[in-house]
C-alpha cells in the first residue's frame, strides 16, 4: 500500500513520447479562394470596360455616365498629384545623400546625364523624321478661330525664371515640380556638405519618403479603377468625328514611341553588354503599364525605382539617385518625340515652312528643355516652349489639347521605360549590374498589395572592375574571393 502512495517512477510516468502517439487533431480544410487576377489583367479589363462605357455614353448621350467616368479619373489623378510635392523633394534630397555611399559617384552621375542626353537626342530625331515623312498637318482643316493658346505658356525666359521659387512654401502649395526639384538639389547638396550634423535631417527625409511611397502604393492599387474613368471619359468626350482630322498626328506619336521602345532602346541595351530587351521589358513592365494608366512619371517613380532594383538588378544606392532625377528630367515621349512632331504639325496647319536650322533647334530644345515637362500629366509646357522658341503661334497648342489625354498615355509609358533603361545601361557599362536578377525578373509586383520596403534590397554599389593589364595577378588571388564574399553576404544578411 505504501508503494502505491509513492510518486510514480520516471519509467511508469507518462512521457512526451507517449503523448506523441495520439492521433493529431484534425485541422479544418483551407478556405478556397478564387483565382487571383493579375494586376496587368485588371488594367486591361478596365481599359476595355472604359472604352465600352465611353462609347455607350457618347452614342446614347448619357451625360451622367460621362461625368461619372470623368470624376473617377480626376480623383485618381488628384490622388497621384497629392503625393508629388513631398515625394519629389524627399526623393531628390535622399538621392543626393545616397551618392555619398556610391563608388565613383561623380562618374556614375556624369554617365547618367550623358545617356539621358544621347537617348533624348535620338528620340527627338525620330520625331522630326516621322514628321517630315508623314506631314501630319498637311491638308488638315480645323477651326483655327476656336483654338486658344494654353493658359500655361512661356518661352525660355519664363522657363529659366520659373526654376528658382520666390517662396519655398509657395512651390509646394502650387505643386511646381521644377522648383521643388531645385529646392531638393540645393538642400541635398547642403546636407552632404554639412556631414554628420545633417544625419538626423536625412533620417527624417528617408522616413517621410518611405511614408509617402507607402501611401502612393495604395493609390497605385487603384489604377484599374482610374483607368476605367480616364479612358471612358476620353472616349466619351472625343469621338472619331473630333479625332479624325488629327488621326495622322496621333498615329505618328504612337509610331514614334513604338520605334523608341522597340528599336532605339533594344539597340542601346544590346551595345551595353548584350542585355536582352525581352528581359528588360519583362522586368520594367509593372512600371511601364502604370505610367500608361496614370500619365504621370513622378507618380510612377516609386514603382519605377522598385523594379529597377528588384527586377533589373541595379544597385540600390545608384538607383536611388538615377530614377528620381529621371522621373523629373528624362522624358523621351513628352519632351522629344511629341514636341518635334507637334511643331511640324502646327507649322503645316498655319502654312509655315520650317528651315533646317529650325529643325535643328527643335532637337536642341527637346534635349535641353526636357526638365520643363516636370513629370506630371501632359506636355503643354514643353510644347509651348518649343513653339515659342521657333516663333510658331501658341494657339497651335490648343489644336492638340483635344487628343492630349490619349497621346499622353503612350508618351508617359515611353518616359517611364527610358527612366528604367538608363540606370540599367549605366550599371551594365560600369560593371555593377546584378545579371542574376536582370536575367530572371520576378513575377507581378503589384498583385500582392504590399509596397516593397526600401531596405528590402540593400546591395551597396560595388567598385567597378579595373580593366588593366595586371588582370593575371587578380586571377591568381581568386581563391581568396569566396571568403570575402561569404563575409559580405553574412554582413548583409545581418
From TrEMBL:
<dbReference type="GO" id="GO:0006835">
    <property type="term" value="P:dicarboxylic acid transport"/>
</dbReference>
<feature type="compositionally biased region" description="Low complexity">
    <location>
        <begin position="471"/>
        <end position="494"/>
    </location>
</feature>
<feature type="transmembrane region" description="Helical">
    <location>
        <begin position="113"/>
        <end position="133"/>
    </location>
</feature>
<keyword id="KW-0813">Transport</keyword>
<dbReference type="InterPro" id="IPR001991">
    <property type="entry name" value="Na-dicarboxylate_symporter"/>
</dbReference>
<dbReference type="Pfam" id="PF00375">
    <property type="entry name" value="SDF"/>
</dbReference>
<feature type="transmembrane region" description="Helical">
    <location>
        <begin position="215"/>
        <end position="240"/>
    </location>
</feature>
<keyword id="KW-1133">Transmembrane helix</keyword>
<feature type="transmembrane region" description="Helical">
    <location>
        <begin position="177"/>
        <end position="194"/>
    </location>
</feature>
<dbReference type="InterPro" id="IPR036458">
    <property type="entry name" value="Na:dicarbo_symporter_sf"/>
</dbReference>
<dbReference type="GO" id="GO:0015293">
    <property type="term" value="F:symporter activity"/>
</dbReference>
<feature type="region of interest" description="Disordered">
    <location>
        <begin position="1"/>
        <end position="35"/>
    </location>
</feature>
<feature type="transmembrane region" description="Helical">
    <location>
        <begin position="37"/>
        <end position="57"/>
    </location>
</feature>
<feature type="region of interest" description="Disordered">
    <location>
        <begin position="448"/>
        <end position="494"/>
    </location>
</feature>
<keyword id="KW-1003">Cell membrane</keyword>
<keyword id="KW-0472">Membrane</keyword>
<protein>
    <submittedName>
        <fullName>Putative transporter</fullName>
    </submittedName>
</protein>
<feature type="transmembrane region" description="Helical">
    <location>
        <begin position="246"/>
        <end position="271"/>
    </location>
</feature>
<feature type="transmembrane region" description="Helical">
    <location>
        <begin position="390"/>
        <end position="407"/>
    </location>
</feature>
<feature type="transmembrane region" description="Helical">
    <location>
        <begin position="359"/>
        <end position="384"/>
    </location>
</feature>
<keyword id="KW-0812">Transmembrane</keyword>
<feature type="transmembrane region" description="Helical">
    <location>
        <begin position="69"/>
        <end position="93"/>
    </location>
</feature>
<dbReference type="GO" id="GO:0005886">
    <property type="term" value="C:plasma membrane"/>
</dbReference>
<feature type="compositionally biased region" description="Low complexity">
    <location>
        <begin position="1"/>
        <end position="24"/>
    </location>
</feature>
Amino acid at each position: 500500500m505504501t508503494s502505491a502512495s509513492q510518486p510514480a517512477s520516471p519509467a511508469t510516468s507518462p512521457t512526451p513520447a507517449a503523448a506523441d502517439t495520439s492521433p493529431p487533431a484534425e485541422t479544418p480544410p483551407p478556405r478556397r479562394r478564387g483565382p487571383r487576377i493579375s494586376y496587368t489583367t485588371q488594367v486591361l479589363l478596365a481599359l476595355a470596360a472604359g472604352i465600352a462605357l465611353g462609347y455607350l455614353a457618347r452614342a446614347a448621350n448619357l451625360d451622367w455616365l460621362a461625368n461619372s467616368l470623368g470624376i473617377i479619373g480626376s480623383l485618381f489623378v488628384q490622388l497621384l498629384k497629392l503625393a508629388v510635392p513631398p515625394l519629389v523633394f524627399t526623393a531628390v534630397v535622399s538621392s543626393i545623400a545616397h551618392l555619398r555611399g556610391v563608388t565613383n559617384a561623380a562618374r556614375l552621375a556624369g554617365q547618367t546625364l550623358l545617356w539621358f542626353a544621347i537617348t533624348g537626342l535620338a528620340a527627338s530625331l525620330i520625331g522630326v523624321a516621322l514628321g517630315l515623312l508623314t506631314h501630319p498637318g498637311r491638308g488638315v482643316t480645323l477651326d483655327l478661330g476656336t483654338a486658344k493658346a494654353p493658359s500655361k505658356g512661356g518661352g525660355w525666359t519664363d522657363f529659366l525664371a520659373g526654376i528658382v521659387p520666390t517662396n519655398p512654401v509657395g512651390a509646394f502649395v502650387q505643386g511646381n515640380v521644377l522648383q521643388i526639384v531645385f529646392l531638393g538639389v540645393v538642400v541635398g547638396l547642403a546636407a552632404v556638405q554639412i556631414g554628420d550634423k545633417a544625419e538626423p535631417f536625412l533620417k527624417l527625409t528617408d522616413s517621410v519618403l518611405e511614408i509617402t511611397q507607402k501611401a502612393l502604393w495604395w493609390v497605385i492599387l487603384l489604377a484599374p479603377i482610374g483607368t476605367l474613368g480616364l479612358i471612358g471619359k476620353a472616349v466619351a468626350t472625343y469621338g472619331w468625328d473630333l479625332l479624325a482630322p488629327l488621326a495622322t498626328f496621333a498615329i505618328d506619336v504612337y509610331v514614334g514611341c513604338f520605334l523608341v521602345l522597340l528599336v532605339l532602346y533594344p539597340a542601346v541595351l544590346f551595345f551595353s553588354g548584350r542585355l536582352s530587351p525581352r528581359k528588360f521589358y519583362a522586368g520594367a513592365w509593372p512600371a511601364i503599364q502604370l505610367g500608361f494608366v496614370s500619365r504621370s512619371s513622378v507618380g510612377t517613380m516609386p514603382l519605377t525605382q522598385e523594379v529597377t532594383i528588384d527586377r533589373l538588378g541595379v544597385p540600390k544606392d545608384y538607383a536611388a539617385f538615377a530614377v528620381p532625377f529621371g522621373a523629373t528630367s528624362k522624358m523621351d515621349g513628352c519632351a522629344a518625340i511629341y514636341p518635334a512632331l507637334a511643331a511640324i504639325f502646327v507649322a503645316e496647319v498655319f502654312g509655315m515652312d520650317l528651315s533646317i536650322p529650325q529643325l535643328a533647334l527643335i532637337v536642341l530644345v527637346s534635349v535641353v528643355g526636357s526638365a520643363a515637362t516636370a513629370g506630371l500629366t501632359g506636355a503643354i509646357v514643353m510644347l509651348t516652349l518649343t513653339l515659342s522658341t521657333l516663333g510658331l503661334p501658341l494657339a497651335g497648342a490648343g489644336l492638340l489639347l483635344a487628343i492630349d489625354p490619349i497621346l499622353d498615355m503612350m508618351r508617359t509609358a515611353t518616359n517611364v521605360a527610358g527612366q528604367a533603361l538608363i540606370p540599367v545601361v549605366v550599371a551594365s557599362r560600369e560593371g555593377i549590374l546584378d545579371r542574376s536578377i536582370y536575367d530572371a525578373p520576378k513575377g507581378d509586383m503589384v498583385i500582392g498589395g504590399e509596397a516593397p520596403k526600401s531596405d528590402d534590397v540593400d546591395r551597396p554599389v560595388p567598385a567597378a572592375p579595373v580593366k588593366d593589364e595586371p588582370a593575371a595577378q587578380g586571377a591568381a588571388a581568386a581563391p581568396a574571393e569566396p571568403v570575402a564574399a561569404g563575409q559580405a553576404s553574412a554582413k548583409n544578411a545581418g
